[in-house]
Amino acid sequence: MGDGEVQGTAASAAGAASGDLTAILPDNVTKLVITHRNTRPYAPSTNRIQTLGINSINWCAQADLYARFTGGPTNGATGQSLTYTVQFGNNGPNLAASNVTRQVVVPEGATITNAGGGTISGNTITFPLVETMSSGVNNSFTYTYTAPIIPSGDENTATISATTASGDSIANRRLNS
Question: What CATH architecture is 65-175?
Fold first, then answer.
């Protein structure tokens, strides 16, 4: 089995509506795939009809964080000043996110001329930490950089993460050339 994969079998008497299989996963679940295999060997006289019923699936409440570019050019020439707007937010549905970090990475060799309220370290802009981001809240930042002389990549990458989030850092990209 691979990482995060659970395998199990629940036997029940023929025609019974029971046979529970309970799986508790150690990490947050971002995708659930249920595969059912009929394990009874085939024989012309064997009834292989089986029913798979899911009475309930319980999910823990999670914040739904996002990062997206809402403005900026799709490409730029060497030495050109490029301005982008990035939005970070929490779609909820009703859970606040804690200790929210928000960053943008610009192409290697670019010169950041306006960090939009963030701090610069190399080619990374880190925006102020948000202790609590309620459901429905978003913030936008506009930043500017000069395109590198020797292109090393064509992407800006925005990342948002938190201690009470969907479990994954979410990275959205927009090509800038």
Answer: Sandwich (2.60)
